Hints:
Elements: H1 2-34, E1 37-43, H2 62-69, E2 72-78, H3 83-92, H4 118-124, E3 128-134, E4 152-156, E5 178-181, E6 184-187, H5 192-209, E7 214-219, H6 232-239, H7 255-282, E8 288-294, H8 316-319, E9 320-321, E10 323-326, E11 336-342, H9 346-354, H10 370-374, E12 385-388, E13 401-404, E14 408-412, E15 419-422, H11 438-456, E16 468-470, E17 477-480, E18 486-489, E19 496-503, E20 507-515, E21 523-528, E22 531-536, E23 542-550, E24 553-563, E25 566-567, E26 571-577
Helix pairs in contact: 5-7, 6-7
Amino acid sequence: MKNSARTITFFLLFILLTALFTSCRSEIKRSEQKRPNIILLLADDQGYGDLGFTGNPVIETPNIDAMARESAIMENFYVSPVCAPTRASLMTGRYNYRTGVTDTYIGRAMMHAGEVTIAEVLRKAGYATGIFGKWHLGDNYPMRPQDQGFDEVLMLRGGGLCQPSDPFENHRRYTNPILFHNGKKIQTHGFCTDVYYDYAIAFIKKSLKEGKPFFAYIPTNAPHGPFHDVPEDLKKYYLSKPNLTSISLEKKPNPDKLAAICAMIANIDQNVGRLFKTLRKLGIEKNTIVIYTSDNGPNTRRYVGNIRGKKGEVTDGGIRNMFFMHWPAVFHGGEKSDVRVAHYDVMPTLLDAAGVPVPDTLHLDGRSFLPLLKGDKTEWPERELFLQWHRGDVPQPYKRFAEVGQDWKLLSMDSARLELYNLQDDPGETHDLISQHQDLARQMEYNYMAWYRNVSSTRPDNYATPRIIAGNDAQLTIVLTRQDWKRDGGKGWGDRGHWLLTVDHTADFDITVEIAEPRPGWHVMLQAGNISREGTMPDSTKLTFPDIRLEKGDIQLTAMVSDKDKIYPRMHVFVTRK
């Protein structure tokens, strides 16, 4: 009798615990579903003034303008002068000098694998994560987006289509480009921006079916150059505008180039309209955050409102950009804040909006500006934003830096002299006041150097190039291009260089050298660690060196295709573990 009563008690307790567990799981699922979806739209080389909303008299952006009117706006949003550093800060909430990303090419646009991205944090919180477009933080393991928290990946390699990392068979196309879907090379159809939004919309629909909130990152490579392959109907439309060249600030405007830029921006606008139509149709617009911004100033000297400068410069036209945050469940539209914030504030802001705590192990440089947009009473500290960019391996103090406070800005373009501006009175930075405010300038200079020393000591050998890992199961074939090599000779991308690799474990590899055009009879040299191979290019464009045994550890790999004193640098090297 006692055993029977005990059995009944245990049975009832089991039913109760099961009900409680099921209820908790349901509550957690409902809580996750209440979290906002997040869409981050990032244009490439689109300046602050490239929208109708910001006063552009030529470029028509009705969909982005409508989004802006219904959004909360950060009126003073700052980014880096060039693209990869901005992308590193957006993804990590940290100064780019902490992440390994200091420039845009020749090995300086790879992010350390130990950096934790917003995608990683959101995925752990139950979000589906996807990227569609330009990553520009590493093409190989362990730096690819799929290694850094993204479930769904459609990407181009390197810094853009038509650049040295692009597959040679793409033949410099923006239309019908060859892209990489979850690591697999695929042929796509349509203009590149249209393709990114196609895949992003499919990802959104899939996430909804799975009942998961989503984070969709859509960083287009438009309106970045080159400018030869753009939507022709839009280009013709802008070429027909009599005031087209009025937006150029160059002495000799190029109408064809301007029309191409306008066409790509108008095409982005069309896709933003298509995206919002999809959100409304799916019934998720209200609780979906959509952010629109860009990575740096405009890629030509053109209209930027009442500020001045362009890409690569640290005047506000090069580093200040639009920031619209559309979230109907929270913002009615028209909310604005003039507090100066930066790209490294975006990650903590989005985590705040999603109700996802910042992991205790993360050291973020940014802080959430969501309370500013909501109009909440909040203690916002007096602080300065630091932005710097350089060519070469190690930054130089004072070279192309800006220190931005709420009122004052200290900058230097060439290290030769400092300039000081009052942004409240002089947003165009036309009156250098350093001689009148020397004490202030010295204090700001002191703050800058303290920042510079701090970020430069984030890790041992802070500016060492991140290493590509060869032979890991996650990527059996790595592809080495001039995007990621260390230049040993030539200018720009260089004609000679080497790659820094870490071999995951001792194994045999096939190494293939591929060139863009046939060079039959040309000499091919390969050096992988202490192993040397030589060969002659056949009539085709590929030569494979088979069965090369690489020992576990760090190595340097060099390849060169040459004929007497001529070097053919347009080369990709494929390293495949057998």
